[in-house]
Amino acid sequence: MANETNSATKRGAEAETGSSATFMGWRVITGLFIVLTVSSGFGFYGQGVYLRALVDERGWSTGLASAATATFFVVSGVCGYAISGLLIRVDVRKVIVTGLLVGALGLALLGQAREPWQMFAADAIFGAGFALSGLVPATTTVARWFIRRRSVALSIASTGLSMGGIAITPVIAELIARGHLGQVSPWLAVIWVAVGVPVTLVLVRSSPAGENQQPDGDPSVAAAVGLIGLSFAQARATRFYRLLTLAYLFVMLGQVGALSQQVKLVSERADSLAAASVTIVAASSVIGRLGGGLLVSRVSPKVFTTVLMAVQGAALVAFAFAETPAALILSCIVFGLSVGNLLMLQPLMLAETFGVREYSKIYSMSSLITTLGVGLGPTLLGVLHDAASYQLAFLVAAASSGVALVLFIMAGPLQPAVARGAHA
User: Fold this and answer.
1) How far is CA 111 from the centre of its chain?
2) Residue 10 has what pLDDT?
3) N or C: which end of the chain has fewer CB within 10 A?
4) 2 domain-assigned
């Protein structure tokens, strides 16, 4: 009888505190992983494939098509900031599902574009949908569900970004090569919705509080740390926030500019490797991100990020001079190692430094400013290619990474909100 009583008491305590045995956080991470896989495969990594198809099929210049790609990223950044307040009030599933539907519409319309203005309009719609189903809602959700294991959880969820480049984008490239963008894009849109919407509705949940659980599956008393954090106004006034954000503007200028032009660069120097180059970068990104998620819990995120910015710059210099298949593959591998982790570290450092109190606003504003670099990168590298060569374009991208490195070092040490004692 005593044993039965003790067991019942234990079960009751577990139900009340949200024990790790029933913790839903990892199920949520699984859902976000899949959502980011399809969104990045069709959206982020797919941009290089669509750019090449639009240039080849429509006869538009690389610079013009690159400007449309930049529109995708700029609109994505603006919409990401626009929904930051909404994420505090609205079930995240509604936001993601809306994004999947809007993004699929934009993708379908992109394939039907016959005039430049139609291409720009489709990419704007595409970018809005990508934002609503991308990193802002995903990282906000991860930050709510995890505190102690946030770096690992974020690395797993964001690995979906790279997995999209491995599992989806090469298939898109092959389908477009066999047919053309206009035939393929409506079917791609249908697949995106058919996979993403059910997964979101079944697996994703906005916060542990809505499920009577606590971050990390901890008891209520341990989860009190989740209330610690700075307001958006406090965060944006700090030197660390301003310089980190500015540094990431230059990081993304080089990174996204290179990603958008990578397929075309490789096709000009070793055409048989063009589609495979996306897979190589994405696979390297997966390996780097999973390893980085474990490593960043043991070393300073500031030091880790500094090293990766230098690695990205070196990879872009390598791309500039790579002419042989072996050199191109090596450039892709090194570049991928930096891509995956740098994308993960920005939201991680912001969450660790400023807490979750107003995280969606803090991250989305940083992401919006970063989007200036994201939007400029594809256009700048495309114009430099048309005017000179990809060698000059990628050297400029590498220089942008160097500027980012200097700014980030100047930002000063990462000082967690817990250390400041800042409470909501």
Assistant:
1) 24
2) 44
3) N
4) no
> What pLDDT is recorded for position 225?
44
**Which residues does the chain have with pLDDT short of 70?**
1-21, 220-228, 416-424
Report how far Cα 20 is from the mean position of its chain's Cα atoms. 28
Q: Do 116 and 71 form a contact (C-beta atoms < 8 A)?
A: no
In a domain, 3, yes or no: no
- Give dist(CA 133, CA 96) in Å, integer: 4
Query: The tokens of 116 are what?
Result: 């430049």
Tell me, rounded to whole angstroms, the distance of Cα 59 from its chain centroid. Answer: 30
As a dihedral over the C-alpha atoms of residue 269, residue 270, residue 273, residue 278, rounded to 10 degrees, the angle is 0
What would the two tokens of residue 416 be?
Answer: 């967690």
Residues in the chain: 424
Residue 143's pLDDT is 83
The residues, ordered by sequence, that sit 6+ positions from 237 with a Cβ below 8 Å of its Cβ are none
Across the strands, what pairs with 229?
355
Paired tokens of 168: 């989806």
Cβ neighbourhood burial of 155 (10 Å; 0-12, 13-18, 19+): buried
Answer yes or no: are the C-beta atoms of 39 and 196 closer than 8 Å.
yes
For residues 78 and 59, give the distance between their C-alpha atoms in angstroms, rounded to a whole number. 30
Assign residue 73 the CATH number of its domain: 1.20.1250.20
Q: Is 406 helix (H, G, I), strand (E, B) or coil?
A: helix
What's this model's pTM, rounded to 2 decimal places? 0.73
Contact 345, 304 (CB under 8 A): yes
Task: State how far the alpha carbon of 60 is from the alpha carbons of 55, 308, 382, in Å.
Answer: 5, 35, 12
What's the pLDDT score for residue 220? 60
56: containing domain: 24-209+216-420
User: Using an 8 Å Cβ cutoff, are 70 and 371 in contact?
Assistant: no
Residue 300 lies in a domain: yes
Number of structural domains the chain divides into:
1
Residue 19 lies in a domain: no
Question: Is residue 281 within a helix (H) or strand (E), and if so which, with residue range?
Answer: helix 274-295
State the amino acid at position 219 in one-letter form.
P
Cα separation, 140 vs 151, whole angstroms: 13
d(CA 318, CA 329): 10
